[in-house]
Amino acid sequence: MNTQQWPGATNKHISIIMVSKLFTFTRRQLHTIVSRDIIKPSSPTPSHLKTYNLSLFDQLAVNAYMPVVAFYPSSSLFQSSHDKTLELKNSLSHTLNQYYPFAGRFAKSCPTYVNCHDDGVEFIEANNDNQLSDFLHHSDHEDLDQLFPDDLIWYKSNHNGHNDENESTSPLSVQVNHFSCGGVAVAVSLSHRIADGSSIFNFLNHWATVTRSRSPEHHDLSHMNPHFLSYKTRDVKLPKNMPDRSQGDYVTRSFVFPNTKINNLKAKITSMSMESGEPILNPTRAEALTWLIHKCAVAAASKTNSGILKPTGVGQIMSIRNNLAESLPETSVGNLYLLMEFPTRDESELTPHNIIRELRKRKMEFRGIKNMETALGIVAEVCSDHAAMLQTSKRVDDYYIYTLINRFPTYGIDFGWGKPIKVTVGGVVKNVIIMMNTPNGDGIDALVCLDRQDMNIIQNDPELLAFC
């Protein structure tokens, strides 16, 4: 392929710094960083867009990076990995024209806006001496860390010794990893301060479509363009001591639930709820798995706590894009979600009819919010009382947070080499459960992060394994 057909792909947009750094990992993996580039938007950002104000939702988001990686088998479209990488750099440069705040800079500590002066996005290229199939089949979830740029994996980026409040940081970094067989893993780390899970997958699909289209000027991609909302600055005292889920000895494991077994679980839940006199009709896959995983996680935690059941809680992330009375475009960028939560203090509150009923009740409450301005007003009220904000997360010992990305276009991220054979999230944080579709859409892959002792128990829980 002739990569010069890309308009605007000049040296001024791509500055290259060659490095050679070796990392040795478990199972004798050799991972080598071969280059670091800075990719800038192919066209300068207009002067009236140089400042992008963050919403209260953004400012309250965790100070961490969301890591997403997509794996692709070897492709015969390119003669070398260099050609593939060059095309990705060129298409990223064009994609950043639309996602211009991602190429900006904001304060590391408590940012309220992004300086959109086209500073650029770091683009790292790396080689892994494994076959892609071997890496996917024989690696633990923690082995994914090496695929992401510079420790930008959830909270890890906050523990690298560079926390000067006067420093600025980039919202986005990219790392492209080449395997010995010709397979590739495209990994991105996006700051949660600027966007949520929906935003990162919209960005990846946009970037992939631009790459696949080869010459974006000749294709109408307006339907994919990001929708950046305009926010006024608000004088609100934000809480600073938010709970930190980065501490402790915890591990992440994947549990795959086939649709056939999820259907059995849903039938079990319906039967149990009918017997209780509080019938739950047509539970969704997410509702059913939330109950099952929560029940088993609490049981595991009780066993490691000398058999004593500690008060816990359920938290589930709900996008507000289509749940406000005045819905927002699907391509809206930002932290556009609310946290539905309720306590589970004893055995009676761990029943399926209680948990699913509470989830549905809170969904209906959120759907009564008129528009984004109303939602921001509610957040501002809560933030005005620091104690009230912290009380939500500390009224019980442990909340388990469930994030649903099974409706996101995860397996549509096609750069022109075909659809990915696997898409997953790196890291994950303690007591967080992320549910996503399996590659063929025939089930749910749940990434569960728990204390190591709890994980040792839940991995052998017969009730959970009966539906895997």
Automatic annotation (TrEMBL):
**Molecular function per GO:** acyltransferase activity
Would you say which domain of life the source belongs to?
Eukaryota
InterPro entries, per database record = CAT-like_dom_sf
Query: Which keywords are on file for this protein?
Result: Acyltransferase, Transferase
Query: Does this UniProt record's set of keywords contain Nucleotide-binding?
Result: no
Which family would the database say this protein is a member of? Belongs to the plant acyltransferase family.
Name of the protein in question: Transferase, Chloramphenicol acetyltransferase-like domain protein
Which organism does this record belong to? Lactuca saligna (Willowleaf lettuce)
